[in-house]
Amino acid sequence: MLPKGYAYRIAFCVFRGFNMDIFELYVVNMKYVRNLKNIEKKRTGRTNTILSVSSQTHKEGRPFVGIIHMVSGMKYCIPFSSIEKKSKYLSMAENITFRKIKNDEGDVIGILNINNMIPVREEYISKFIIDELPTDSKEQADYKRKCKQELEWCNNNASEILRLATELHSIICENRSFKKRNICPNYKELEKECSKQKKISKRNIKKQLIRKTKP
Known about the structure:
The protein is built from five helices and eleven strands; from the N terminus they run ββββαβββββββαααα. The chain is an alpha+beta fold. It has one domain: Thiol Ester Dehydrase, Chain A (Roll). The strands form four sheets. Strands 1-4-11 form a three-stranded antiparallel beta sheet. Strands 5-6-10 form a three-stranded antiparallel beta sheet.
């Protein structure tokens, strides 16, 4: 789970021709994510297809590893979840909608929720410093070390993840028969919302990186 006071995080990959830079952690604007969630609810009536950032449900700052995937000219962020919150996945067989993130010892340390991917634009994200700082608490330092392990796994499995994301996007957007459609958002509607969203100030995004202080 994300340490208290930290913001909604993703990893961002920049494509240059046919080459791909390594994934890095970024923060994404939470208001934008909430807007997408509202659009999804309005269009489909579902609320479980986009991971919540609601403080009322104690999920504000839910971590995202965003394997940014280009499809139809859009960048997509694929999130991950804490295994502590998704323990049911330990006994489940992997499929096109999710992958288990493992450390070097083969232990599952997180879940990559491919079905919960969302379209993003660059102005919605700002880089998060993953390197440990002298001012970090033990909880924050532990979280950053875990993030590094998760990013390493994602980089080592990037081709497979992007292949699955591309295939899943095609299945949903082409209305093909798919038993797990109810856990996937309406990607086309989210893309429309992403394209028309107003530009977000980088300063407002960076504010989410600042640890909340007690009054």
